[in-house]
Description:
The chain is an alpha/beta fold. The protein has a domain at 2-62 and 93-161 and 268-338: FAD/NAD(P)-binding domain (3-Layer(bba) Sandwich), CATH 3.50.50.60. The chain has helices at residues 13-24, 49-52, 94-108, 151-155, 176-181, 221-236, 240-243, 249-252, 296-314, 322-348, 350-359, 361-372, 378-382, 391-412; strands spanning 2-9, 29-32, 46-48, 65-67, 69-74, 77-83, 89-91, 111-113, 118-123, 128-132, 135-144, 162-173, 185-190, 197-202, 207-214, 255-267, 274-275, 278-280. Strands 1, 2, 8, 9, 10, 11, 17 and 18 form an eight-stranded mixed sheet that branches. The chain has a seven-stranded mixed sheet with strand order 6-5-13-14-15-12-16, with helices on both faces. A three-stranded antiparallel sheet has the order 3-7-4. α1 (13-24) runs parallel beside α3 (94-108), α1 (13-24) runs parallel beside α9 (296-314) and α11 crosses α12. The chain is globular and about 65 Å long. Residues 9-15, 32-35, 42-46, 117-118, 145-147, 149, 151, 167, 169, 210, 262, 264, 282-284, 288, 293-297, 299 line the site of flavin-adenine dinucleotide. The site of flavin-adenine dinucleotide has 38 residues, from α1, β12, β16 and α9.
Amino acid sequence: MTHSDVIIAGGGPSGSLAAYELARQGISVTLFEKAIFPRYKVCGAGLTHKILKEIPFNIEAILETEIHTFTFSSGFKEVFTRYNADPLIYCTMREKLDAFLLAKAEEAGAKVFFGTRVTDFTQNKDGVEVNTANGLFRSRLLIGADGASATVARRADLRDNIMPGLAWEAEIQTDPLVVKAFSQTVFLDWGTFPGGYGWVFPKKEHFSIGVGGPAHLSRWMLPYYRQFLGYLEFHLFDRPDLQATGIQREEQRLKTLSLKAWPIPVRIKKSRFHDRRVLIAGDAGGLTDPLTGEGIYYAVRSGKLAAEACSCYLQAKQQSLQSYSDAVNDTLMNELSEANRIKYIFNTVPAKIHGFVRDSERGWRAFGKVLRGERWYGDVGKGLGTWRFLWNPLCTLARFVSWFKERSFQKHGFPG
Ligand SMILES: Cc1cc2nc3c(=O)[nH]c(=O)nc-3n(C[C@H](O)[C@H](O)[C@H](O)COP(=O)(O)OP(=O)(O)OC[C@H]3O[C@@H](n4cnc5c(N)ncnc54)[C@H](O)[C@@H]3O)c2cc1C
């Protein structure tokens, strides 16, 4: 039976970053990935600028587009566009990003087995025995970085306080002139679907277009997606300046290359992210932003924190992995819990927030700074200044309003 210090289940961003950081320190690490890379993964692959500060090597080679502009609509109306001199988001494709990150981990010394699913494990006082589709392996610690399927987290009973989210996304081809015209612009429709939104992320040669929100509203998600696509095709992409270039209507049609749904698990309360010799990171831990669905940043951050906790434990600087749960709760969960509260406020007064980002320089700047990692969700309440004492009661009130809005939408769907 092969032995290593740490086994990692899953080679997405959380697993790769954990493997990279461990291997760099000379710790023996084996990563099992059920797929064979490069593999398609349904994801917008929009990387907020703040993520570049967290990845300890340059990833420019795999970025396809750089986003400076956002176009917003609310219910496909009241459309406005805002520009930021510094880039806010970079778009790529997950097959490129994930293969690149995992190759970096391999270069650093991690052993990677593709096409190998982790199926189960048992913990004892000496270590962990990990069952895979290709046999039994032993390690001292195990990191579950196996995404929303979360085999490791489920077996370790670490899946409490998770609110299921869902997203539908398609890769869409259209006329190259349309793709080029929108190559620096992310389009968002918000305030239409309670607790969710629709997005267009421009890639080098196509668009990734999707909608997402709470899973209990899933019945209305595909109808929303179809409305969204219709709006894009017949309104947003049907600009007079594009018509003037001589594009034929037929070439401007949106051709769906793939359309898939995938869960987005959202941890809504501080919880345990370890059990004896097991840690969970990224989507397996439900570490996604409840407001935006962003998960790659949190996958990278939690992967790195998991590596740090494993390293301290293996060097006997810590007697348990409790420091990992504490670090995740004190950093990532603080931020994500605040994002959840802001989501309630947004759900309650979407039109006001739409107007605030449109009309106020301060509103747009704050939006950009959060994406760039120059401000945090935790700063939003502080921005109320002397009215800050109202923040907690406002969030509590908004939570109830938001709950009623979602329940009503679940029952009745879109008005009319
Ligand atoms: C439609 C959609 C759009 C999204 N858009 C964005 C976006 O634009 N920006 C953003 O930041 N986030 C986005 N997200 C969220 C983002 O995709 C996830 O948060 C992110 O992928 C989490 O990374 P991870 O490493 O934890 O898990 P994953 O990326 O899911 O990686 C898990 C890996 O583990 C492997 N695996 C699974 N089970 C096993 C097993 N038993 N054994 C071995 N290997 C296993 C899988 O093959 C996979 O490679 C989106 C999500 C969805 C559904």
